[in-house]
Amino acid sequence: MLTKFDVVVCGGGAAGLTLANLLADMSGGTLRIALVDTKLESRKHSPRTSAIAIGPKQMLASMGAWSLESAFAAPVRRIEVSDAQESVEAIVPDLTFQCAEYDEALAWIIRHSELETHLRDIARSRDIRFIEGEIVGYKPNGAFAQIELRDGGALGARLVVAADGAQSRLRELAKVQCVEWGYDRSAIVATLRHEESHADTAVQIFYPAGPFATLPLTGNRSSLVWTETRDRAERLRRSDINELTAEIQRYSADRLGSLRLEGDIASFALGYSHVRSFHAERLVFIGDAARRVHPLAGQGLNLGLRDAAALSEIIIESARLGLDFGSISPLVEYGRRRNLDSVISSSAFDVLHRIFAWDASALRMARKTGLSLVQSSDHIKALLMKEATGFSGMYPERFGREHAIR
Ligand SMILES: Cc1cc2nc3c(=O)[nH]c(=O)nc-3n(C[C@H](O)[C@H](O)[C@H](O)COP(=O)(O)OP(=O)(O)OC[C@H]3O[C@@H](n4cnc5c(N)ncnc54)[C@H](O)[C@@H]3O)c2cc1C
C-alpha cells in the first residue's frame, strides 16, 4: 500500500532539511512531512564552509537552528576584494565593505557539515518521517504524485519537493529543462591555521583562473576556497604538502603571516545550471536542484535557503485557506516569487567569473575602473550589500525584513 504524505522533501542537504523544519514548525505539526535521502546519517567530515548571509541566518535562528555561534560560526565584519591580475606581489584591496558599528556582522562562516548535522538533529526532534532510499521514479497522478525508491518502496505526496542537488534526478525524471555549463574550474577547499589574526576579514583576491578566498573561522584559522583550472587544482591537491602550503602562502600575499594546513583538503568541480521552470506537475525545485552558481559570491546555499523560506510561506498560506498547495496556482506563485532573484543572482555571478577570468588588457583597465567606481559610490555599495546580506529577492517578512539594508 502507498504511504501518503502532504509533502515529500527529496534530498536531505541543507536546503531540504531547512524546508522540512520550516514546514513542521509553521504548520504546528499538522502537515505530514517525509524527507528522503540516500544517506541520512552524518556524512564524512568535510573542510567545506558556507558563508551564511544575515537574512538567512535570521531564518535559521527563528527555527532554533542557530545556537552555534560559540562553537564554530565566525563573523565577517569586513570584506576586501582585490584584482591581482598584475602581480602577486602588488596586491592592494580595490573594493572594501565594512560592517557598520551597530550591525552584528556582514555574514557568518560556518562548517557546512556541522550546519547539516544541526538541521538534521532538529528535524529528528520534530514530526518529520525520515526515509533512507534512492529516488528512481516520479509519477504525477491526479491529487497525488508517486515517488518510487530503488528498493521497490513507493510514497504518495500532494507535493514533491526536489531538493536533490545539482545533479537532480527528479529534474531528469520530470523532464524539466535546465540551462547548464561547466567552468573547467575546481575549488580547492581547506582549513588554514595562521600566525596573524584575520581580524574578522574575508579576503578575496581575483587571479586569472578565479578567486582565491580566505574566510575567517574561529581563532587564528581561515577557510580557504581557491578556484583554479581543473588540471592545476588536481595537480595542487596531489602535490607535496610543503609545496602546496608555499603556493597558498604566495597566493595569500602573506596577509595572514606564516600558515599551515589543518585537516583534509577537498576539491569541487564548478559549474552553472538553472531550471527553465521552478515547477512541474505536483513538483517544485529548491536549492541546487533549481540552480547551481559559481561560489565566488558565497550565495549558492543562501539562494536555496531563500527558496525554502518562500516555498514554506506559500504552502502554509494555501493550507490555511484550505487550498490544494500541490495544485498549479501555488506552484506558479512560488516560481514567480523566486525566478527573478534566482536568474539575476546566478547570471551576475556567471558574468563576474567571466569578467575576472578575461585577461585582455582593455578589459583589465575597465575592471579596475569599475572597481574604483563601486568603491567610491555608497549607493552602489549599499545595493551590493543588500544582495550579499540576503535581504533581496522578496525576502519573507516573517524572517526579519525590518533588519534589511534599505
Ligand atoms: C566550494 C564551494 C563553496 C561554497 N560556498 C558557499 C558559501 O560560502 N555560501 C553559500 O551560500 N553557498 C556556498 N556554496 C554552495 C552550497 O554549498 C550549495 O548551494 C548547497 O550546499 C546546496 O544545498 P542543497 O541542499 O540544495 O543540495 P545538496 O547539498 O547537494 O543536497 C542534495 C541531497 O540530495 C540527496 N540526493 C541526491 N540525489 C538523490 C536521489 N536520487 N535520491 C535520494 N536522495 C538524493 C543527496 O544525497 C544530498 O543529500 C559553495 C559550494 C561550493 C562547491
| Low-confidence runs | 401-406
CATH architecture of the domain at 3-49 and 111-180 and 272-359: 3-Layer(bba) Sandwich
**Which structural class do you get from the secondary structure elements?**
alpha+beta
CATH class of the domain at 3-49 and 111-180 and 272-359: Alpha Beta
The share of residues in helices is: 25-40%
What ligand molecules are bound, each kind once? flavin-adenine dinucleotide
Count all strands and give the number: 19
User: What is the chain-wise order of helices and strands?
Assistant: EHEEHEEEEHEEEEHEEEEHHEEEEHHHH
> Remind me, CATH topology of the domain at 3-49 and 111-180 and 272-359?
FAD/NAD(P)-binding domain
Please give the alpha-carbon distance between the first and last residues. Answer: 53 Å
Radius of gyration: 21 Å
Overall average residue pLDDT: 87
Shape call: globular
Beta strand %: 25-35%
Give the count of helical stretches. Answer: 10
- Main sheet? 8 strands, mixed
CATH superfamily annotation of the domain at 3-49 and 111-180 and 272-359: FAD/NAD(P)-binding domain
